[in-house]
Write a structure and sequence with these properties.
By secondary structure, the chain is mainly alpha-helical. Helices cover 73% and strands 0% of the residues.
Length: 168
């Protein structure tokens, strides 16, 4: 609400309460006054004060979140894994595994300009199901085997980078 409108409504509330009740209600005015008060506090705060307040707010939020998690899992030690699995499921359904990046599109465009539309078709196929795992698009298993020495891992990483560049 524009501050001038609020001032007019407050003036109307004082001078003609019946008309004010027809136009607005006290809850709306109270919310607007609260917003203006918070805005005034924000404008008058220094950067350091804001930083401290934000840290306090985040700390309080994390504390409440931990308490909520504790209540959810209270007496259900076997439910911890089920809750974790459900969270992973929700995250996987919300966050795509594949996101079209400029370099991927550019490689497909360059290939198409040279008459090879296979890369465009591959990118389109991948983007049809961006939330699911798609065989043939993940890094080869030889990229991240444990137990390799540092030099061997470096070679595998370089091969993986070449693989990615070549296949994208």
């Amino acid at each position: 609400m524009d501050p001038r409108e609020l001032a007019m409504l407050l003036s109307l509330a004082q001078t003609n309460p019946p008309l004010f009740q027809m136009i607005s209600d006290r809850a709306t005015i109270a919310r607007q006054l609260d917003k203006l008060s918070k805005l005034k506090d924000l404008m008058e705060s220094s950067e350091e004060e804001l930083k401290i307040k934000q840290e306090d707010d985040w700390t309080a939020w994390i504390r409440r979140y931990r308490k909520r998690l504790g209540r959810e899992l209270e007496g259900h030690s076997d439910a911890v894994q089920a809750v974790q699995d459900e969270r992973v499921k929700v995250m996987d359904s919300t966050n795509p595994r594949v996101v079209l990046r400029n370099y991927i599109a550019q490689n497909a465009i360059e290939a198409a300009e040279n008459g090879d539309f296979s890369e465009v078709q591959r990118v389109l196929k991948v983007l049809e199901n961006p939330f699911s795992s798609q065989p043939g698009l993940e890094l080869p298993t030889w990229v991240s085997k444990r137990g390799d020495n540092e030099d061997e891992r470096g070679k595998k990483l370089r091969r993986a980078v070449r693989f990615i560049i070549h296949h994208q």
